[in-house]
């Protein structure tokens, strides 16, 4: 006779409907119609949730469970576990879980286990499993603890996947990048594989030698050698039950370097996940061995090539320095202006860059200052730098035009001579003029035009600094038709105009505006120092020991009539100049002092 409450409780559960077929009269629980209300409530709870729930009741720990728990019983334990004793159903793991049952039944305190390892036999073989579960007490109608409620989830797949990822990481970390022979490659790899619970055997075969080079774990089985031979002959990976055999082919022809054997453990099912893991592992080792052999085979050729490249680089550097010495000529001396120029290459060992400076008296008697920077850092940039410097000097000397018109004509020459995009550069041209209304030897006008170059800085005779920020025009070489603008500023005796390339201010860590402000701060108060000292102050205040870029500097200071130059202190050897002199890198002798130029006059005065 069926109990109505039991029919209702199991109606919406597949396992519940199977539970109706159990001969409960033959179990310690008796027929469901006789079950106490407390047991009935627990059964209703068990079959009302889709979460995995199992309960035991009575001294024999008779089991009842729902659909969610069904999967945990594997292929062999269900449906026989319904109405059976938990001691019998879980006999192979009872030593592991019985203390937990005892704790709940004797103390009434619930338990919680996370990722507990259990070696089950639920599908015909010993299987490694992991569970997170909680045991809670169940009381009868009189309040006595007579049962246990198990709410569980299986975490086996997550634990195993995490472990396999860790194995892949460990093998990656162990892979040697250089080695002298196959055994030295295999030693760290096989050691890392031997630490994985998913690898019961790892072996590396040398197809050109005595066979097994190195192995770990279980002994070789009868079918292994046959699979190795098949892999060598076919050149293809062999996958058998519980084993992956991977041939490592050479990049050259059909040669074979080695064969890797990986055997899995018997306590995990040999499924698609396991096969995929073993294949990825074998490919990882395969790629590392092949790459290492390739690298070793090319080492001698690479070393020889490096020697040749170093020789070529040395020759190119020699040519570059010769070109640099030729183009970075000495500035002239003026009766009423003090000029200092400076060039410092980057700390990195490389060819000359594209930075340059110039200072010369033009055809009309004005003093012209030039600072520029060609894009790039190689011999090509140095060649273009020489071409641009010559263009600016020739056009600036002969044209009697303002700096903006000079740059426009240089742009047109770059286009007409088809120098191309390699001639792209930042340039600033400045003319120091004296208009008819300005008292000789006193007030002067600096007229300049900037093709994308950092702004000049003016150190006044009272020590204050001005950043002469204007809207920059396009770089040279970008647009031959681009209009350019002139800008002016008046300077008096003791004022110092500072021109420089971006190597003095640009860094990876700070913004341009912040670096400009810093340079102005460094130069502030240098009005009484000689120009050589001002250059050193700028370099030490702005650059670290290992500068990332070349630096060129031009400084000009207005002196009163009959005044003398204060800049007789030379910059230290390496790239600095005394007043009116340039000493390029590598020079051992100061150049001769050029003839004095005529006093400066304005463009308007000349015309």
Could you explain the architecture of this structure?
By secondary structure, this protein is an alpha+beta fold. The protein is 35% helix and 23% strand. The protein is built from 15 helices and 20 strands. It has helices at 4-10, 14-19, 37-48, 67-70, 86-89, 94-107, 156-174, 182-194, 222-234, 272-327, 379-398, 403-416, 512-523, 531-542, 603-606, and strands at residues 53-57, 62-65, 111-120, 127-139, 145-154, 199-206, 211-217, 238-240, 243-249, 256-264, 337-344, 355-361, 367-374, 425-433, 444-451, 457-459, 465-467, 487-491, 496-500, 551-558. The strands form 4 sheets. Strands 2-1-5-4-3 form a 5-stranded antiparallel β-sheet, with helices on both faces. Strands 7-6-10-9-8 form a 5-stranded antiparallel β-sheet, sandwiched between helices. Strand 3 (111-120) and strand 4 (127-139) form a beta hairpin. Helix 7 (156-174) runs parallel beside helix 10 (272-327). It is elongated. The N and C termini lie far apart (128 Å). The model is unreliable at 565-607 (pLDDT under 50).
């Amino acid at each position: 006779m069926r109990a109505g409450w039991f029919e209702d409780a199991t109606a919406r559960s597949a396992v519940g409907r199977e539970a109706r077929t159990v001969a409960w009269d033959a179990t310690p629980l008796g027929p469901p119609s006789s079950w106490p209300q407390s047991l009935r409530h627990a059964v209703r709870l068990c079959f009302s949730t889709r979460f995995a729930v199992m309960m035991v009741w009575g001294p024999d720990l008779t089991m009842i469970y729902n659909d969610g728990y069904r999967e945990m019983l594997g292929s062999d334990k269900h449906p026989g576990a319904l109405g059976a004793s938990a001691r019998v159903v879980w006999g192979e793991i009872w030593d592991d879980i019985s203390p937990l049952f005892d704790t709940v039944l004797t103390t009434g305190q619930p338990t919680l286990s996370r990722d507990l390892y259990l070696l089950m036999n639920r599908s015909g073989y010993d299987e490694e499993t992991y569970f997170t579960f909680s045991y809670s007490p169940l009381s009868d109608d009189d309040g006595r603890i007579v049962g246990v409620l198990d709410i569980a989830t299986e975490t086996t797949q997550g634990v195993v996947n995490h472990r396999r990822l860790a194995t892949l990481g460990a093998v990656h970390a162990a892979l040697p990048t250089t080695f002298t022979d196959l055994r030295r490659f295999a030693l760290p790899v096989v050691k890392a594989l031997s630490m994985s619970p998913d690898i019961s055997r790892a072996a590396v075969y040398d197809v050109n030698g005595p066979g097994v080079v190195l192995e770990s774990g279980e002994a070789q089985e009868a079918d292994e050698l046959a699979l190795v031979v098949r892999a060598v002959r076919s050149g293809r990976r062999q996958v058998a039950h519980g084993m992956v055999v991977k041939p490592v082919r050479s990049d050259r022809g059909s040669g074979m370097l080695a064969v890797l054997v990986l055997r899995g453990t018997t306590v995990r099912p040999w499924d698609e996940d396991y096969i995929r893991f073993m294949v990825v592992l074998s490919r990882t080792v395969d790629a590392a061995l092949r790459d290492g052999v390739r690298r070793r085979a090319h080492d001698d050729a690479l070393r020889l090539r490096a020697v040749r490249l170093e020789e070529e680089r040395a020759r190119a550097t020699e040519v570059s320095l010769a070109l640099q010495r030729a183009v970075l000529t000495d500035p002239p001396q003026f009766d009423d202006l003090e000029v200092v120029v400076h060039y410092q290459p980057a700390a990195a060992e490389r060819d000359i860059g594209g930075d340059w400076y110039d200072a010369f008296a033009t055809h009309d008697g004005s003093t012209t200052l030039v600072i520029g920077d060609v894009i790039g850092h190689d011999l090509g940039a140095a060649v273009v730098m020489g071409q641009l410097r010559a263009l600016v000097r020739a056009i600036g000397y002969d044209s009697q035009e303002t700096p903006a018109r000079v740059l426009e004509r240089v742009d047109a020459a770059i286009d007409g001579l088809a120098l191309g995009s390699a001639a792209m550069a930042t340039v600033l041209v400045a003319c120091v003029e004296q208009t008819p209304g300005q008292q000789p030897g006193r007030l002067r006008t600096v007229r300049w035009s900037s093709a994308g170059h950092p702004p000049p800085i003016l150190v006044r005779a009272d020590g204050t600094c001005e950043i002469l920020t204007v809207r920059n025009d396009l770089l040279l070489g970008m647009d031959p038709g681009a209009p350019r603008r002139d800008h002016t500023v008046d300077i008096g005796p003791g004022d110092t105009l500072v021109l420089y390339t971006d190597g003095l201010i640009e860094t990876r860590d700070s913004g341009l505006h912040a670096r400009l402000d810093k340079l102005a701060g460094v130069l502030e108060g240098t009005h009484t120092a000689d120009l050589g000292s001002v250059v050193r102050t700028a370099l030490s205040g702005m650059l670290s020991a290992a500068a990332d870029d070349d630096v060129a500097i031009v400084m000009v200071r207005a002196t009163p009539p009959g005044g003398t130059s204060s800049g007789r202190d030379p910059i230290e050897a390496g790239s600095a100049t005394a007043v009116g002199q340039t000493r390029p890198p590598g020079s051992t002798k100061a150049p001769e002092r050029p003839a004095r130029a005529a006093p400066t006059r304005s463009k308007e005065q000349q015309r």
